[in-house]
């Protein structure tokens, strides 16, 4: 779809596909991208290690090497030409693709001048706050500990180094330099003012942790990862790069268990860029919030959610497994490995694994009911479309936004297919007691798979299952069926 929309450039990935680096793979870059998809833009490498051999890259269809000219520098290209490893026509093609986009965008620049005063202006910080509010996922809320009630709490103990760390993510090419970052501790203090006594401790001495937690109404532990733990970096280094484990650092797990051992009103706030395994401590505490890297206003959003000024509405964009045994084998130092087709929630479905928190999962301070799932017709042809409708009600006492998800399953497919695929979602705002009917549309072409033998998209004429609900968990979903004829 992005190629059909006229995207100007596409970046090849670092990894291998079927034994070949993407940047050395003419089947990916020429046969599929440039020929079958008729891509008119240019192919650009990922940073530094997007290709390993300049001649193979040019032959495969790479047009620009970034950010350095290590393997496709002019003198290197001349050498490849003289050796007969690439052709002049391949160089001409790359130049033509680059020039075509330069000319296309030469007069389409942004005419507005952005001065420094616009950086982190009110409008921008409001968007940053909204993004944080709508990103934090409530994963557990035993006995409705959250939201916290201000007039019932006298003291809160906050633990963890990350509580005072401006933790906004990777320090690689995506690094930004905001004028300020509201940390979790600052956000909580700003929300409660002088009404609640806030005690902070990094949590290095577990006996002190137990004493403070025992003397407090609520304990909040901020744990997880920072740029030094994950993100851009070599997997062979001690830190940065891919995580060796999805568990928290041992010191964080011990901190959580220590606080929870003396006070069951224990809340864990997780920070990080992906799933975190919680199994060793999940059942010992009362509440979990996944805040990811929440940005410059993340602490503000966290405080608002903890005290109910904002009702959390986010859902997980990835499955949180119970253990690494539910994941494909990983070794950061391996030079070659072959992975199967399925990953994430589709792998969980195929293997029958029970995750800690399923894909699409997220709690709210209110409750919702799903009723009366229906479709406007029971059959459609291969160029048709159906409408799926569901009644969603707010059955709780607080206004909230619910993300309604639609998955499709396949009955007796001719090829191996996922148990279910996410095919659509929508968000609805509901006041207490309010019910709304939501409509989701599904086109037959959304059901197609690509047949590499026929070189075409195929829509199977079989029975399909529509699942609608608040997450990918089967128990959460209502179901009905339709046919493609």
TrEMBL record:
<dbReference type="InterPro" id="IPR017853">
    <property type="entry name" value="GH"/>
</dbReference>
<keyword id="KW-0378">Hydrolase</keyword>
<dbReference type="InterPro" id="IPR036881">
    <property type="entry name" value="Glyco_hydro_3_C_sf"/>
</dbReference>
<comment type="similarity">
    <text>Belongs to the glycosyl hydrolase 3 family.</text>
</comment>
<dbReference type="InterPro" id="IPR036962">
    <property type="entry name" value="Glyco_hydro_3_N_sf"/>
</dbReference>
<dbReference type="InterPro" id="IPR002772">
    <property type="entry name" value="Glyco_hydro_3_C"/>
</dbReference>
<dbReference type="InterPro" id="IPR026891">
    <property type="entry name" value="Fn3-like"/>
</dbReference>
<dbReference type="Pfam" id="PF00933">
    <property type="entry name" value="Glyco_hydro_3"/>
</dbReference>
<dbReference type="InterPro" id="IPR050288">
    <property type="entry name" value="Cellulose_deg_GH3"/>
</dbReference>
<dbReference type="InterPro" id="IPR001764">
    <property type="entry name" value="Glyco_hydro_3_N"/>
</dbReference>
<feature type="domain" description="Fibronectin type III-like">
    <location>
        <begin position="402"/>
        <end position="472"/>
    </location>
</feature>
<dbReference type="Pfam" id="PF14310">
    <property type="entry name" value="Fn3-like"/>
</dbReference>
<dbReference type="InterPro" id="IPR018247">
    <property type="entry name" value="EF_Hand_1_Ca_BS"/>
</dbReference>
<protein>
    <recommendedName>
        <fullName>Fibronectin type III-like domain-containing protein</fullName>
    </recommendedName>
</protein>
<dbReference type="GO" id="GO:0008422">
    <property type="term" value="F:beta-glucosidase activity"/>
</dbReference>
<dbReference type="GO" id="GO:0009251">
    <property type="term" value="P:glucan catabolic process"/>
</dbReference>
<dbReference type="Pfam" id="PF01915">
    <property type="entry name" value="Glyco_hydro_3_C"/>
</dbReference>
<dbReference type="InterPro" id="IPR013783">
    <property type="entry name" value="Ig-like_fold"/>
</dbReference>
